[in-house]
Amino acid sequence: MHENRTYLSAVIDVLKFTATHRLAQRGHNESDDSPNSGNFLENTFPLLARSWKHRLAMSKGIQNEILAVMAKMVQGNIAYEVKARGEFSLMADETKDCHKMEQLSIVLRYFQNGSVYESFVGFV
Questions:
Q1: Gyration radius of the chain over CA positions
Q2: Co-location of 70 and 103 in the same domain
Q3: In terms of domains, do 17 and 45 share one?
Q4: Is the pTM of this model over 0.85?
Q5: N or C: which end of the chain has fewer CB within 10 A?
Q6: Within this chain, do residues 60 and 33 fall inside the same structural domain, yes or no?
Q7: Are residues 79 and 94 in the same domain?
Q8: For all residues of the chain together, what is the average pLDDT?
Q9: Do 65 and 38 reside in the same domain of the chain?
Q10: Three-state SS across the chain?
Q11: What does the pLDDT look like over 10-24, one tens digit per residue?
Q12: Range of the domain at 109
């Protein structure tokens, strides 16, 4: 149980680091003999990465689930800040992605501690 918590904490720390620094999680070749298997695998503890159980937890599906939870937490913090200020503006911009599907990006703009903040909320 303690080992699992230690491992999960390490996985979350690496995901937070790579997300905060806008680094790609995965590489082009994530095999064991790859010289660069991506920022996530390169920065997790090598000892933990050897176990099949921990390999499963390092899958892109698990990474994406953890990132989705982290994104909801960030959006919750943004919502709290906007509600506390009471006044905000909503900015929306529509563009086509590489598959020619339209995406609407949504940004909230609000005033806090003498500065204007713009927080990206998501794509629709």
A1: 18
A2: no
A3: yes
A4: no
A5: N
A6: yes
A7: no
A8: 77
A9: yes
A10: CHHHHHHHHHHHHHHHHHHHCCCCCCCCCCCCCCCCCCHHHHHCCHHHHCCHHHHHHCCHHHHHHHHHHHHHHHHHHHHHHHHHHCCEEEEEEEEECCCCCEEEEEEEEEEECCEEEEEEEEEC
A11: 778 778 877 777 776
A12: 87-124
Token pair for 20: 């905060």
Structure token pair of residue 64: 């994406």
Q: Which letter, b or e, does each residue of 5-15 get, where b requires 16 or more Cβ atoms within 10 Å of its Cβ?
A: eebeeebeebb
If asked whether residues 21 and 40 sit together in one domain, one would say yes
Q: Are residue 60 and residue 103 in the same domain, yes or no?
A: no
CB atoms within 10 A of CB 110: 19
Type of residue found at 92: A
- Give residue 20's Cα distance to chain centre: 8
Statement to judge: residues 78 and 106 lie in one domain: no
Identify the helix (H) or strand (E) that includes residue 70. helix 60-85
pLDDT given at position 109:
92
Residue 55: is its pLDDT beyond 50?
Answer: yes
| Domains contained in the chain, number | 2
Reported as a single tens digit per residue, the pLDDT across 33-51 is 655 555 565 655 454 555 5
